[in-house]
Amino acid sequence: MTAVQFVSPHDIRAMFSMAMSDMYRREVPQYGTLLELVSEINWRARLTNQAPNGSDPSDRIDVERHGAIRVGTALELKTVRRLFGVMGMSPVGYYSLSSAGVPVHSTAFRPISDDGLRRNPFRIFTSLLRLELIEDAGLRSHAAEILAKRNAFTPRCLELILQNEREGGLSLAAATQFVSEALNTFRWHSEATVSAQTYKGLKAVHPLIADVVCFRGPHINHLTPRTLAIDAAHAAMRSHGLEAKALIEGPPARQHPILLRQTSFKALQEAIDFIEPDGSRVASVHTARFGEIEQRGVALTPAGRELYDRLLAQASVHPAKDAAQAAAFNSHLTAVFRKFPDSDDAMRKHGLAYYRYRLADKFQHRPIEPETTFAALVSSGQVRCEPITYEDFLPVSAAGIFRSNLGDEAIGGVSRGGDLTAFEEALGAPVFDPFRLYAEAVTRSREACLIELGLPIDREIGVPL
Ligand code: OOG
Ligand code: NI
Question: What's domain 9-296+392-432's superfamily in CATH?
Fold first, then answer.
């Protein structure tokens, strides 16, 4: 018997990300405009040497996307975990957005291996609605009932997930079918599953609840390309008639970007139909989907993140209403962030950011003195340090993105702490700690250098990390 050839999960992810992008381009024409604009800005940044040093290779950045979905039940969350598992994506991090007035908690599904991230770092920010935060008991149970009745996954999709789990992979034919079946879950449906009255009742509690509960499944609500020059891309969005918000969320512009900067354009008003109890339709509109761009920088250590959070709190971000307010806030933010060193050397030496080690090409075969420390190899240039890209999200920025797309007035009333235990129980698995993943990537790279040099891998490192 000949063994079935399995397609690599990385290839399934790349296929899925491309299929998702094609679907979203058809659903939201502005997304196509955004892609063209970002691609042009990225090429210009490369050709004029304005891409930040240590940037990821262009074959990764040009296909890089993140999307976001919102699920309604524990079963849906578990099933999307298994679905993304087929594509080599694992749940990383826990984000509680309830303190920002959004009744959800979230994780991000993404690849976690060096190879997986290099091949296609596709990620999906996934939020689970916290129905327990709805105070009105009647409405809460009505929402739960509606959610319990829907099935967001096609039967064939569920079969293929099972097949993958049972057999350890999918053939090319099965993988191709899986991609198209899985895509259905995230499609937009202009037909609501509820009456106008139910929608209105849920929307009055929180617009996000209506978005999660009233449709057939967790439609993808944005798909974000990565830019190398977000300030230029933000200006271009505005000049192309995309209604970008005034502010870029996250850290200020820097020589050496850290974490994640993002900005979005307003949610679209989309025509929908409600289905009334007598079967008649009522035409209306719904706003949920929007456009976003992001720029990624180096991942921060817990100490770096603590400094970032402290400085951001000190700058006290407020929604900027117009370009003048945004410009004033940006110069204030830049001034506050002078306390955050802006060189790779300083960030690494102060243990603020993660760097990957690599043998400098020209030193590869040079003999090493037996007593040489790893630190000495780094300072002599024999071992190079490269920033490790931040692969995750930022809760404050995410809250800002949710907020600007739901309308500022929508917020309030659901302030409650996070509940990681309940989230992991709903997910049916623990979430990976992002800091641990970055630290392990550093260790792997250091050990690979030492092995290449023929040195013991437990050699004293002598520098932070
Ligand atoms: C998710 C918003 C979070 C980001 O980039 O921070 C996000 C949502 O609106 O469902 O995607
Ligand atoms: Ni996003």
Answer: Uncharacterised protein PF07063, DUF1338 (3.10.180.80)
